[in-house]
Amino acid sequence: MAWIVKPSGTMGIERRDEPYLTQSMRDRLTREVLPRYETTHAALLPALHMIQHEHGWVPAQAMLEVASFLKLEPAEVYDTASFYEEYWLKPRGKYLVSICRSIACEFAGHERVTQAVKDRLGIDVGETTDDGLFTLIELECLGSCGTAPAALVNESLHENATPEGLVRTIDEICRAEAAGSSAGAPHH
Ligand code: FES
Questions:
Q1: Is the model's pLDDT at 27 over the cut of 70?
Q2: To the nearest whole percent, how much of the chain has pLDDT over 70?
Q3: Residue 187 counted as domain residue
Q4: Is the CB–ligand 1 distance for residue 104 below 6 Å?
Q5: Is the CB of 150 under 6 A from ligand 1?
Q6: Quick check: 136 and 127 in contact, CB under 8 A?
Q7: Is residue 3 in a domain?
Q8: Is residue 169 domain-shared with residue 126, that is, in the same domain?
Q9: Cβ(60)–Cβ(14) below 8 Å
Q10: How remote is the CA of residue 146 from the centroid of ligand 1, in Å?
Q11: For residue 13, what pLDDT band results from cuts at 50, 70 and 90?
Q12: Would the CB of 167 count as within 6 Å of ligand 1?
C-alpha cells in the first residue's frame, strides 16, 4: 500500500454562477424535509439526492452550497457523498450501463457481457466515453438472479443479458442519438 498525496490545499473547484442547489430545492428542504428532523444533518442525504436527481451528479460546488445551507462543514458533506456509491462525484454518461457482478450473475457469465460492452465502447469499468454518452459500471445484485446475468441500461432491466444483446442495445442508442432522439431510454 502506498500513500498518495493529493494537492487538496491548492486544488481549484470549478464554479459556475448559477447555484446547483436551486431556490426551489431550498424551499422544498425547508418546507418538507427539515421539519421532520431534529438536526439539519439529517437533511443531508435528501439534499444530495435532489442535486443528483436534477443534475445527474454532485459537483463540488453543490457540496459547498449544501454545506452552507445546512450549516455543516464542507468536509462532512464530502465524507457522506463520497461514502455512498450511489452518489456520483464526477459527471456520468447520458446512458449508464450497469452490469451485475454478484454471485448468480458471475456463475451465469457476467464477465463476458462486461467484456463485450468494454470492447464495444472502448472504455473500462468506471469510465465514460469521450462523447459523454455512456458510462459503464458493475454493481451488486439487482434482484433478478433468476434471470442472470442481469444488467441495466439507465432504468431499463435486461434479463438473461448476452454480450450480443447489450451490444445491440448500445448500437441502437447510438443510431438514435445520431438521428437526434434518445431511443426511449430513460433519463438518469
Ligand atoms: S446476482 Fe445478479 S441479479 Fe442477483
A1: yes
A2: 90
A3: no
A4: yes
A5: yes
A6: yes
A7: no
A8: yes
A9: yes
A10: 8
A11: confident
A12: no
pLDDT digits (tens, 9 = 90+) for 44-68: 999 999 999 999 899 999 999 999 9
138 shares a domain with 113: yes
Does the residue 184 lie in any domain?
no
Using the predicted structure, report yes or no on whether residue 182 has a pLDDT greater than 60.
Answer: no
* Residue range(s) defining the domain that contains residue 166: 95-178
State pTM to two decimals.
0.73
Alpha-carbon span 76 to 98, nearest angstrom: 28
Tell whether 78 and 103 lie within a shared domain: no
Answer with the one of 50, 83, 116 that is the final residue of a domain. Answer: 83
Test site for ligand 1: of 98, 137, 144, 152, most ligand atoms within 8 A of the Cβ: 144
In angstroms, the CA 185 to CA 53 distance is 16
Q: How many domains, the chain?
A: 2
The per-residue pLDDT for 188 is: 43
- Evaluate whether residue 11 is within a structural domain: no
Cα of 169 from ligand 1 centre, angstroms:
20
Q: Say if strands 151-153 and 95-100 run parallel, antiparallel, or are unpaired.
A: antiparallel
**74 and 142 belong to one structural domain:** no
Residues 75 and 104 reside in one and the same domain: no
